[in-house]
Amino acid sequence: MFRNVAELVELAQSKNKKISTIMIEQEVEVTGKTREQILSQMETNLDVMEKAVERGLQGVQSVSGLTGGDAVLLQEYIKKGTFLSGEILLDAVSKAVATNEVNAAMGTICATPTAGSAGVVPGTLFAVQRKLNPTKEQKIEFLFTAGAFGFVVANNASISGAAGGCQAEVGSAAGMAAAAIVEMAGGSPAQSAEAMAITLKNMLGLVCDPVAGLVEVPCVKRNAMGAANAMVAADMALAGITSRIPCDEVIIAMYEIGQSMPSALRETAQGGLAATPTGRALEAKIFGLPLLKK
Amino acid sequence: MKYKSVFDIIGPVMIGPSSSHTAGAARIGRVARTLFGRQPEWAVIYFYGSFAKTYKGHGTDVAIVGGLLDFDTFDERIKSSFQIAEQQKMKIEFHEEDAVTDHPNTAKIVIGDHQGELELVGISIGGGKIEIIELNGFVLRLSGHNPAILVVHDDRFGAIANVSNILAKHEINIGQMDVSRKEKGKMALMTIEVDQNIGDEVLREIGELANITQVAKIVD
Hints:
Chain A: It catalyses: L-serine = pyruvate + NH4(+). Chain A: Its EC number is 4.3.1.17. Chain A: GO terms for molecular function: 4 iron, 4 sulfur cluster binding; L-serine ammonia-lyase activity; metal ion binding. The structure holds 2 protein chains of 2 kinds. By secondary structure, chain A is mostly helical. Chain A has a single domain, classed as 2-methylcitrate dehydratase PrpD (Orthogonal Bundle). Chain A contains 13 helices and 1 strand. In chain A, helix 4 runs antiparallel to helix 5 (87-104). The termini of chain A are far apart. By secondary structure, chain B is α+β, with helices and mostly antiparallel strands. Chain B folds into 2 domains: 1-136, CATH 3.30.1330.90; 143-220, Alpha-Beta Plaits (2-Layer Sandwich), CATH 3.30.70. In chain B, 29% of the residues lie in helices and 34% in strands. Chain B is built from 6 helices and 11 strands. In chain B, strands 3-2-4-5-6-7 form a 6-stranded mixed β-sheet. Chain B has a 4-stranded antiparallel β-sheet with strand order 9-10-8-11, with helices on both faces. The longest helix of chain B is centred in the N-terminal third of the chain and has 18 residues, at 19-36. The radius of gyration of chain B is 17 Å and the shape is globular. The two termini of chain B are 18 Å apart. The model of chain B has no long low-confidence stretch (mean pLDDT 89). Chain A binds chain B through residues 1, 3, 23, 26-27, 30-31, 38, 41-42, 44-45, 48, 62-64, 102-116, 118, 121, 143-144, 146-148, 150-151, 154-155, 159-160, 162, 176, 212-216, 286-287, and chain B through 1-19, 22-23, 50, 53-54, 56-59, 62, 74, 76, 78-79, 126-128.
């Protein structure tokens, strides 16, 4: 069993295998299930992700009314062709938003690694596929590669906003996505690790401050930027850029930053954006509570 | 290593928006339904802590009723559980409680029909995982780290041995077992923590034993 990113990369390099293959082999060993069973379970998750994106792109609205419809706005904007950044980048952002809007609207999603950060990995996957034309098997592998990096983060740091802030949720999701994009684009295991490190470094310190305690504001847009971050970091790693701080040390830094984060900024809706006048006003409107004094 | 499977990271498939406030709530409702053994005619649901503060926005109420209707965490019908409950003439009442509980995501469910009643307290501990901490006034002691089953039975000799025999037959190792009863010879409870996940077939076999009233998985 690999315990950190260094071991994961070393395993892949010494056996001349992809990271997704290493993850699948470990899953076979740990669970005793067959390779076919494991691939088929991941295929189910992939199908759920694809349906969630499709649904979000048709336009959804959350129960509270706080979120919905932004994925559609972005797709319409892309069609106009006047965008400044990039088509695949914006497509990834739109599909990440689509997934989280569906989540907020009580739709079916696959937690990746959590419900609140479920948009980043599928958003990037279904955007880069237009350029890379992967087979279904390669799309399934994308999820195993993402899972392998998430596995390391979950065991060495945290993937919960309550424990480590948004850096642990969307930050982890973005790092996982970046690593998986690199593999799908033909990069090396080491480049996947670099992409993860570059992404996570730029998510460090991100707090979890949901308005009214709901998985909506700012979660949906944080998924958008998580996807953008992952796309750019993947390109940087594929260009040969490396992180001066090794991936495992970035993960530990993320953990320690999470430990020192005040509880008001860890999913309690007591600080940050949740405590702004507008955040408080929205909370009062949704739950009918008296406004808290500043 | 807290996480062992890649599907702890990529998964579970669930109805949003929150694994703890939606998926976990549905599971608490479903355990109550399973232990009751049939669809209740009425339900009174008490929310505590963060559940009490945010249940409307998270759909915790809709999810818990979905569970009472026997829907799994990924069942799309959860969304319309209120309408379905109404069609099936299930009466539902919600109470927001101020009392401070040990865990912020706590729900108490009282369900019943003309034949009987059941009261259960459940907590949602994150990632969709839940624990049942109280049943009909019995306090359940579980570590929460291992799969666990709950067996409601008549307090008769041999009942405990019969259950452990079935587990032994299926090569399931018991990690911890707790036995309690209200009065000698009356209703009794077994909470059994095991090392591996228990399939539905084993639960069915236990349920068919003499003096066993109800069997349910309470921790996955």
